[in-house]
Amino acid sequence: MTAVHHFLEVDDLAPSALEDLLAKAAAWKSSPAAVPHALSGQGVAMLFEKPSARTRSSTEMAVHTLDGHPIYIRGEEVGIDTRETAEDVTRTLASYCTLIAARVFDHHLLERMVAVSPVPIVNLLSDRAHPCQVLADLLTLREDLGSLEGRRLAYVGDGNNVAASLAFAAALCGLELTVASPSGYELDDDVVDRARNLGGTIELVVDPHEAVKGADAVYTDVWTSMGQEEETQQRKVAFAGYCVDDDLMATAGDQAVFLHCLPAHRGEEVSESVLEGPQSVVWRQAENRMHGVRALFTILVGADG
Ligand code: CP
Ligand code: NVA
């Protein structure tokens, strides 16, 4: 039996497979006529326990342009572990679909799905990781910087799911990553250790100005992620001083591009002027979500030629 390749975190791809994915995504972005009919006659289940603008829409369009059929399912509709177990939902969806993609509160739920699924499980965001996001981020950075080897990425803010996936992505691509977070909100030690074991150069600091000085790219995300809403007020206090504003971008320098996975909270983690300013690439970054996930799906179903 052929091994099923799941995608719960970026390092589920070998560096060469990631390189191949990014090359395909870029090629099909510039030549849409070359996109293969990789999912012809096949379904992709998309299970969402949380809201989404970009992930749902980009994934649906990726499946559509691969000639497949996306099935959007809200978590409450299937009632995971209330109406029936996650395992039973997974086996049922796998009987109709070639891929199952899911956005979940608890990363452990994805691992339970993997344990029983005969088809690949794709993480569309969990509390621990957002790997499809960072495929788009890498694609965007390559458009702006060319080769990422030895380039410097500064992440300012919460050591959250996006930061964790960026740490692995950076390690696989040779990007040097500096993460600036307030005390108590740093990247988990096990993420840092794992990224370093992959060969990553990753530094954790407290001062955002120290992190961004001379960086090629500055990245931030919301202070309060989905599922943490009850911590919103304490996080606003903890993250005061971590807004990516004109002052911080001036420290970074004119060469730096600004990234944000979105949704953005203007006046909190990013100022209006930076988000809408000349260094911001966030809209192209959002567009690249579709190109990244499309290439991923062709690789996961082994139809990438
Ligand atoms: N960046 C991202 O995942 O956006 P959505 O939450 O809107 O899907
Ligand atoms: N860290 C954010 C990312 C949203 C795309 C969250 O988990 O809500």
Question: What would your notes on this structure say?
Answer:
This protein has about 300 residues and is α/β, with parallel strands linked by helices. It folds into 2 domains: about 10-130 and about 290-300, Rossmann fold; about 135-285, Rossmann fold (3-Layer(aba) Sandwich). Helix content is about 45%, strand content about 15%. The chain contains 13 helices and 9 strands. The strands form 2 sheets. The protein has a 5-stranded parallel sheet with strand order 7-6-5-8-9. It has a 4-stranded parallel sheet with strand order 2-1-3-4, with helices on both faces. Helix 2 links the parallel strand 1 and strand 2. Phosphoric acid mono(formamide)ester binds near residues 53, 54, 125, 133 and 262. Phosphoric acid mono(formamide)ester binds near residues 52, 54, 261, 262 and 263.
Task: Please state how the strands of the largest beta sheet are arranged side by side.
Answer: 7-6-5-8-9
Instruction: Classify the oligomer.
Output: single chain
Gross morphology: globular
Radius of gyration: 19 Å
Mean pLDDT: 97
Pattern of helices and strands: HEHEHHEHEHEHEHEHEHHEHH
CATH architecture of the largest domain: 3-Layer(aba) Sandwich
Give the % helix: 40-55%
Specify the CATH homologous superfamily of the largest domain.
Answer: Aspartate/ornithine carbamoyltransferase
The total domain count is: 2
Number of separate helices: 13
CATH class of the largest domain: Alpha Beta
Number of strands: 9
